[in-house]
């Protein structure tokens, strides 16, 4: 074979390889998903993240043509589930849907996490934000923010508040509220919203901080009382419940957000397909209505905005943790 002939064949081979490589991203997108998707939820069934996760899973399954399996992996303040997904194959078939507890609260107080909030995941999208609310046992003679603040300042040793976990977004929000109103009461952490709500209803604790999602059915049943919402605007599902900001505490503006992420290194076409699909899902009127009915506010933020959210919120949470001496269990 002449040198010229060999050079021509080599050039053709390189050109062919380049064509194949250029086609790989499109191929990855076209065949994804090639098997069922596992959507890991780091909370027990019935909580806000689980409710949103099941709705997103159902819609993703219909849009992508593959089953979406909800895998509830509660424990260790969401770290068990997050660690599992961080080590999963980066092919888009294992995803995590979780709240700020995973991405900004945990890293603010824990140094031995089995994942890195920034380095272990590729953010796909925020699909909802959920207002938080301060609740009271029905037997407590406190019915609004003004009475809440007066009671805490007068006899702080008489009261305690529950959250759905030490170092959770509810715990952080509780400490934000207490600092703003100039009071300090005992924090009682629970392993999830359901047991915290049970003890609030039963009178074992006087107050709690929880999501509007968890609070809605109990408020409608008259089993607990609403004191105030912790977001700047009122919840669309609780339009008659004022915010702490309206009561004179504008610095109180805290909620939790629900984000979908994939293991770091997931191919860009797969991430883009998931992001665009979730954008269409959240924009669907029926889905938005279901989110609102469950106390969530439909709000889509893409991958870039989601990554920025983590980067901006993490140092703020670290500052709150240091100031309030928030520690893990």
Would you spell out the secondary-structure blueprint of this structure?
Elements: H1 3-31, E1 37-41, H2 48-64, E2 68-72, H3 79-86, E3 94-98, H4 100-109, E4 121-137, H5 145-154, E5 160-163, H6 169-181, E6 186-189, H7 193-202, E7 207-211, H8 212-220, E8 224-229, E9 255-263, H9 268-283, H10 285-293, E10 297-301, H11 303-324
Helix pairs in contact: 1-9, 2-9, 4-11, 6-11
Report on this model:
This protein is of the alpha/beta class and 329 residues long. The protein has 2 domains: 35-129 and 258-324, Bordetella uptake gene, domain 1 (D-Maltodextrin-Binding Protein, domain 2, 3-Layer(aba) Sandwich); 131-229, D-Maltodextrin-Binding Protein, domain 2, CATH 3.40.190.10. It is 47% helix and 20% strand. It has 11 helices and 10 strands. The protein has helices at 3-31, 48-64, 79-86, 100-109, 145-154, 169-181, 193-202, 212-220, 268-283, 285-293, 303-324, and strands at residues 37-41, 68-72, 94-98, 121-137, 160-163, 186-189, 207-211, 224-229, 255-263, 297-301. Strands 1, 2, 3, 4, 5, 6, 7, 8, 9 and 10 form a 10-stranded mixed sheet that branches. It is globular. The model has no long low-confidence stretch (mean pLDDT 91).
């Amino acid at each position: 074979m002449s040198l010229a002939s060999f050079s021509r064949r080599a050039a053709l081979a390189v050109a062919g390889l380049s064509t194949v490589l250029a086609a790989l991203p499109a191929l990855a997108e076209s065949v994804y998903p090639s098997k069922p998707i596992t959507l890991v939820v780091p909370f027990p069934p019935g909580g806000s993240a689980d409710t949103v996760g099941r709705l997103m899973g159902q819609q993703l399954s219909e849009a992508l043509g593959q089953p979406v399996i909800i895998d509830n992996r509660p424990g260790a303040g969401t770290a068990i589930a997050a660690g599992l997904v961080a080590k999963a194959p980066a092919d888009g078939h294992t995803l995590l849907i979780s709240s700020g507890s995973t991405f900004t609260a945990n890293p603010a107080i824990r140094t031995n996490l089995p994942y890195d909030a920034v380095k272990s995941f590729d953010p796909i999208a925020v699909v909802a934000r959920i207002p938080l609310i301060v609740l009271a046992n029905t037997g407590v003679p406190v019915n609004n923010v003004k009475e809440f603040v007066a009671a805490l300042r007068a006899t702080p040793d008489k009261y305690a508040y529950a959250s759905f976990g030490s170092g959770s977004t509810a715990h952080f929000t509780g400490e934000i509220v207490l600092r703003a109103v100039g009071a300090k009461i005992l924090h009682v952490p629970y392993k999830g919203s359901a047991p915290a709500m049970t003890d609030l209803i039963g009178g074992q604790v006087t107050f709690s901080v929880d999501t509007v999602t968890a609070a809605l059915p109990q408020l409608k049943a008259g089993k607990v009382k609403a004191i105030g919402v912790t977001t700047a605007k009122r919840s669309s599902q609780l339009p008659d419940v004022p915010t702490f900001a309206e009561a004179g505490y504008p610095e109180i503006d805290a909620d939790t957000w629900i984000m979908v992420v994939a293991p770091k290194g997931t191919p860009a076409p797969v991430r883009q397909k998931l992001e665009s699909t979730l954008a269409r899902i959240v924009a669907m009127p029926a889905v938005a209505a279901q989110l609102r009915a469950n106390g969530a506010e439909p709000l889509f933020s893409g991958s870039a905005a989601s990554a920025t959210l983590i980067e901006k919120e993490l140092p703020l949470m670290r500052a709150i943790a240091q100031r309030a001496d928030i520690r893990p269990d």
